[in-house]
Write a structure and sequence with these properties.
This protein has about 675 residues and is of the alpha/beta class. Helices cover about 45% and strands about 10% of the residues. A hairpin with a 5-residue loop joins strand 15 and strand 16 (about 470). The chain is globular, with a radius of gyration of 27 Å.
């Protein structure tokens, strides 16, 4: 066995330089980290049978030589590749938004009517968005993946950066990256050994095209480890989120309508994300998980010494026990949520409670509170419209518990206690607090989309206080965002006093073990400070009529460009599905960074989610049809896309015209001195 000195080998050193420059085009930070390696601890050795292996100090990494190992492993992988299989689209299983559901149904039904032949189960076209390698080792398998499979982008996960350093001296990464670039793809490299952060980065990479070409993505496991096992589990937990899009047309219209009407209706404050003075008391974030019932006495004991923030159904849980929260958080934009709060307001006195809500909530939601603080949630068209180049509040969704924790940390409470943030349950029949509307109101389960679904928990996850709990995709997504939030606030402590799923980064604590020294005066001082740290506005102050008129014109301009793009796409005689995707993607990008137009971006955001969902549906059909039907499916998709865009243009134009009319009316009724 001979140890190879790769740095002193001119051929290997030259290959490394070519490779590092190719990597730098995509992940310059990783290139910089690789350049800092001078003398790696691990070594590449040539074995007696003229193969290669990695000497990691106390043993060899591969049981056999790496090339023999990869040859055998790769043959097995090709015979039965692990793919992300979203499947042939089925309308009844898709999100409830009408435009998208109709589009899915029309595309699938038109395929039947036109005699489009679906490939037998298990047979699919090879084209896909991503090739993912979990582990690099020496890297012999990666080039084979890209050459043998038509994947657009490459994602590499490796916990040992030295392995990648060795691979760059031995393999033509620059050629592999050229293949990715020829397909107009991207290279992602995730070098870390923390399962939580690796899973989060991998999720972000797979969502980089927002699910348009996720179907069929290849997952190649090069070696087994604790990290890889956790990544596989994370992928299983988050696959529905990874494949989801970034908004729907109907929702975007509702959100800009609600936001405008909220700002026109009353005086209000806006909470924006920026540094604030630390608060001298803790914050209690109370949701309606089943463990809220056993935490009530702890909350009652300290309610005058901590700022209490209720979340969604947690409001009724507290009020039914005679505990009045200081702030109440809502994020849903539905009529159903407004109905629920109006019922609560008819049973309990809500005076003195300040609503903290996404600006997109239904105006009836805000109307039941004397005082309201709105915030602009990220990645929705209303935020782009009102904040322009501002700073939205990230990680405040998808659930009200996320919003409550985000408000507490954003307002600089150094200690945050989570109660009833179970995101799951120990017992299937005990899915929420017994004091919540889930059990006290017969109509609650049918109040709005997602309520009943939140009681169905088919997934098992590790428990915060040990053992396992039942949960579901929506709650796991909430946990992922909560985890990211906690990681973003280093130096802050989040105590999870809930008997639900484990939230990485939080500190498990039994409610009965909660203790701190803050006083009622500290609580009062914190609330006064919060009031000074938010921006206060009068009725209609945030609504600029000229901006709506600008939006109306740019809406018309964007649709003209979209129709022209579709016409050009329809002229092709040979289909490049990656190019087709990129042409649609470019409809939502500025010509250059310097030419970014925030008002045009509102139009992009409004249309993006639905257009990309339509492409996702088309792509899933494309991967499962005979060669002779490929162009017919493509033209059918473009025809349907144009029809739907024409409908969307008419709807969006009418929404903007309505908001112009309502704004003019409110402005006309205001006194001249306002």
């Amino acid at each position: 066995m001979i140890t190879l000195d790769l740095k002193s080998d001119p051929k290997a050193a030259a290959l490394y330089e070519r490779n590092i420059e190719a990597i730098r085009r995509h992940v310059p930070g990783i290139a910089d980290r690789l350049e800092t390696i001078d003398e790696p601890v691990s070594r590449v050795v040539r074995t007696d049978d003229d193969d290669l292996n990695l000497d990691i100090g106390h043993t060899l990494f591969y049981e056999a030589g790496v090339r023999k190992f990869v040859d055998e492993q790769y043959v097995g992988y090709v015979a039965d590749p692990y793919r992300i299989d979203i499947g042939w689209p089925v309308a009844d299983m898709e999100p409830p938004q009408i435009m998208t559901k109709v589009a899915i149904r029309r595309l699938t039904e038109m395929a039947k009517l036109n005699g489009i032949q679906r490939l037998p189960p298990g047979l699919q076209r090879g084209v896909t968005g991503f090739a993912v390698s979990l582990g690099v080792g020496i890297g012999d398998h990666i080039g084979r993946m890209l050459r043998d499979h038509d994947a657009q982008s490459l994602i590499v996960v490796e916990q040992f950066i030295e392995f990648l350093w060795h691979s760059l001296h031995l393999n033509p990464w620059h050629e592999w990256i050229d293949i990715v670039e020829e397909r107009n793809g991207r290279v992602f490299m995730i070098l870390d050994d923390n399962p939580a952060s690796v899973s989060a980065e991998l999720t972000n990479a797979l969502r980089s095209d927002n699910g348009g070409t996720l179907d069929g993505s290849l997952i190649y496991t090069h070696y087994r480890s604790h990290l890889v096992r956790e990544i596989h589990r994370g992928l299983s937990d988050q696959i529905s989120y990874i494949g989801s899009n970034r908004g729907f047309f109907e929702d975007e219209n509702i959100m800009i309508l609600n936001s405008t009407r909220n700002f026109l209706a009353r005086d209000h404050a806006i909470w924006r994300s920026r540094p604030r003075r630390e608060k001298s008391c803790p914050a209690f974030v109370v949701a309606a998980g089943p463990s809220a019932d056993i935490a009530i006495e702890t909350i009652r004991k300290y309610k005058d010494n901590a700022v209490v923030i209720s979340c969604g159904s947690g409001l009724k849980v507290l009020l039914s026990q005679g505990i009045r929260p200081d702030y109440h958080v809502e994020v849903e934009n539905t009529f159903g949520q407004a109905d629920i709060l109006e019922k609560v307001a008819s049973e309990f006195d809500l005076s003195g409670i300040t609503l903290v809500a996404a600006a997109t909530v239904n105006p009836r939601t805000a109307a039941v509170f004397d005082k309201v603080i709105f915030f602009h949630r990220d990645t929705v068209c209303s935020t782009r419209f009102f904040e322009l180049n501002g700073n939205p509040v990230y990680l405040a969704v998808p659930t009200v518990a996320n919003g409550g924790a985000r408000f507490a940390l954003g307002m600089a409470f150094k200690e945050v206690y989570l109660f009833g943030v179970d995101l799951g349950t120990r017992l299937p029949d005990y899915h929420h607090s017994k004091a919540s509307g889930y059990y006290t109101d017969e109509e609650f389960m049918f109040s709005f989309q997602g309520v009943k679904e939140s009681t169905i928990m088919p997934i098992t996850a590790e428990g915060n206080l040990g053992g396992t709990v039942l949960t579901n995709d929506g709650f796991l997504l909430s946990r992922l965002f909560m985890q990211k939030l906690v990681q973003a606030y280093t130096g802050y402590t989040v105590y999870n006093c809930s008997d639900g799923v484990d939230i990485p980064g939080t500190v498990p604590k039994l409610p009965g073990k909660v203790t701190f020294t803050a006083t009622p005066d500290d609580r009062k001082a914190a609330m006064k400070l919060i009031d000074r740290e938010i921006d206060h506005y009068g009725q209609g102050d945030c609504v600029d009529l000229a901006r709506y008129r600008d939006l109306r014109q740019k809406t018309s301009d964007w649709y003209v460009g979209a129709y022209e793009t579709i016409d050009r796409m329809a002229e092709v005689t040979e289909l490049d599905v990656f190019k087709a995707y990129d042409q649609l993607w470019n409809l939502f990008q500025p010509p250059s960074e310097a030419e970014f137009d925030p008002i045009a971006a509102v139009v992009w955001q409004n249309n993006f989610g639905t257009v990309m969902t339509l492409f996702n549906v088309y792509f899933r059909i494309h991967r499962r049809v005979e060669d002779r039907d490929v162009m017919r499916v493509y033209q059918m998709f473009l025809s349907e896309l144009r029809c739907f865009l024409q409908d969307m243009e008419a709807i969006l134009a009418s929404v903007i015209d309505l908001l112009v009319e309502e704004t003019e009316q409110v402005k006309a009724e205001q006194p001249l001195s306002a």
